[in-house]
Description:
The chain has helices at residues 2-11, 24-52, 78-92, 98-123, 132-152, 225-246, 252-271, 274-280, 291-309, 318-335, 342-345, 347-370, 382-388, 393-413, and strands at 196-198, 206-208. Helix 3 runs antiparallel to helix 9 (291-309), helix 4 runs antiparallel to helix 10 (318-335) and helix 7 packs parallel to helix 10. The chain has a domain at 2-158 and 222-344. Strands 1-2 form a two-stranded antiparallel ribbon. It is an all-alpha fold. It has 14 helices and two strands, in the order αααααββααααααααα.
Amino acid sequence: MFYYLFDWLSTNKLLPGAGVFKYISFRAAMAILTSLIISAVMGKRIIAFLHRKQVGETVRDLGLKGQNEKQGTPTMGGLIILSAIIIPTLLFAKLHNVYIILMLVTTIWLGLVGFLDDYIKVFKKDKEGLQGKFKIIGQIGIGLIVGVTLFFNHSVVVRERVASNDSKAYSNDGSAPASVAFIEPKYSKDDTHSLKTTIPFLKNNEFDYALLVSWMGDNYRKWAWLIFIPIVILIVTAVSNGANITDGIDGLATGTSAIIGVTLIILAYVSGNAIFADYLNIMYLPHTGELVVFMAAFVGACVGFLWYNSFPAQVFMGDTGSLALGGIIAVFAIAIRKELLIPILCGVFLVENLSVMMQVAYFKYTKKKYGAGRRIFLMSPLHHHYQKKGIHEAKIVARFWIIGIMCAVLAVATLKLR
């Protein structure tokens, strides 16, 4: 909203300096500061409200050290995160941007699914919460909305690179020649609706999902949604559940999400800027630069929530926060055509997810074969395995953060590492 107000003030020369709101970097900085303030101020009040309403976590006895101390800690703290994302985005982003609209819908949709799950657990005293099939339906629903929007909306476009007879703008080692002051990026002036995405570690690393249905004839591109939308649904569901599983000890999911968010800011900024996209030889995606403002609010919300969620936690995010965090990361990555980077970028989520799948599959297999189930890990998800080994949860969280940073650095390095 502020963007439109200050744009009007700048256009009519009513306020000197109002044009600064045209810069994504400035609005992103304001978004992250605002989200931090909202998290700190609103967080304290929401926690006090949850205490008064006795909205406490019911902890299952898993035999973990310090577990009983968490009994009664307020949950549904994801409301803090959602507020700190939505409010700054509404204030500082261009609200007519299709990507911003999509991210807001994703945040609210999955926040509501998670809220319903937490509400059933806390107020209905049902430890199982929302049935798994309804969670999946909710995740499939938002995946369907995202897939349909990205496929059919005409504002979702790329700019194709064009051949140029000009001298190279950059030398082979990536540095700009001293004799070159500026060379216009070599992209078409026309927007193209495309399903191309980025394949990490490969030169000319663009892959078109439409090619998967090329066997359908000359008009195969109009049928590409048959493969694209299911892929989007799968990614959104997987990453959302990954974040949900990771949210098991104080600060783990929140800090990991913040690290991923910073990485996505970098990827979105270079993808939405023609100069950087040309230099890095990556797809130029018009209008995606605005997503930097949204993700700045996301990072601020996660860091601000850590004020209360770090060990020992004063509040838990619950499914209200964790389902939304994972869904936001997935949709954002798909929007900037970097979804194939998710296994690297979200390495912590992936390992946590795999640890559960491996544990369950191996237990069922050995029970069928030997009559008694056996386990790979002392407990799953993986962070509980290390707790069982006697490692303090604060140290586990710090080490997982370090792994998350390593994954983030590798994800950024793929821009040049091919």
